[in-house]
Amino acid sequence: MRTDAIEGSPLLELDSVHVGYGRTAALHGVSLHVRPGETVALIGANGAGKSTTLRAISGLLKPGRGSIRFKGRDIGGMAPDRIVGLGIAHCPEERHVWPAMTVYENLVLGAYLCRAAATVQQRVEKVYERFPRLKERHQQLAGTLSGGEQQMLAIGRALMSEPVLLLLDEPSLGLSPKIAAEVFDVVREINRQGVTVLLVEQNVHNALGAASRAYVFETGKVVAERDAAGLLEDPELLTAYLGG
Ligand code: ATP
Predict the structure, then answer these.
(1) Whole-model pTM?
(2) Residues 195, 203 contacting (CB under 8 angstroms)
(3) What are phi and psi of 123, to 5 degrees?
(4) Residue 242 C-alpha to ligand 1 middle, in angstroms?
């Protein structure tokens, strides 16, 4: 989706967000925005603060200073389940599926805020339509799935809350290039169907292939914002911050 085709106010807006782990500062005044319908990538070296940014948005970390606004509402420091209820789902780094539970049970847990069993069932069917492989394996323990299948399950579980905004952390981690490409096809499809995506990804080409815009992070700060196509054509910037 092209950036210039998207109008209106941001869905998500971070303004000068500072976050630390105990006394160790990790984000030093991060500002960024995501408009409805976009896929935006956060890229940068290891430890630059990308995952920390997602954790602050989903309420796992409380910002010390600055504001996080979703649909115009301040969500900084709000409890994670309230944030899920507002329409943000976080698919974390390393997937964190429950290995001793079945595919089906993992999915149902993703809809933990929904009390209507029929609605939960409809959502499971929707996820199975998108990921037929999960349907085939619905009674299989998640821990026995391949890495790619676990990633699909983690994304499917996040979709069970029917999010407006999906936070996706390193979806290609540990996957072969072929399986990573399949995961990114899914990300593009989810976006086409109306879910806004904020993506953290080490593989810059995967990230910029799915995103319309990107923010480059370095040591807890945003050091550049570009449209994805422009960034791919800026080898100096890529080399400077990402090592090429
Ligand atoms: P990576 O791809 O390696 O996860 P990242 O850009 O996502 O990189 P973060 O994980 O957000 O970076 O880390 C930002 C900083 O916060 C780093 O200095 C990191 O060491 C530190 N950090 C991350 N997680 C923790 C934690 N649980 N406890 C203490 N410090 C942490």
Answers:
(1) 0.92
(2) no
(3) -65, -40
(4) 16
**Predicted confidence (pLDDT) per residue in 22-63, tens digit:** 889 999 999 999 999 999 999 998 899 999 999 999 999 999
Kindly state if the Cβ of 51 falls inside 6 Å of ligand 1.
yes
Domain 12-242: which topology?
A: Rossmann fold (3.40.50)
Residue nearest ligand 1's atom 2 by CA: 46
Render 29-45 in DSSP notation, one character per residue.
EEEEEE-TT-EEEEEES
Q: Distance, CA 20 to ligand 1 centroid (Å)?
A: 10
The residue extents of the domains of the chain are 12-242
Beta-carbon contacts of 103 under 8 Å, excluding residues fewer than 6 positions away, are 134, 137, 138, 139, 140, 142, 145, 153
If we measure between CA atoms, which residue out of 97, 229, 69, 231 comes closest to residue 165? 69
The whole-number average pLDDT for the span 84-91 is 95
Distance 213 CA to ligand 1 centre (A): 23
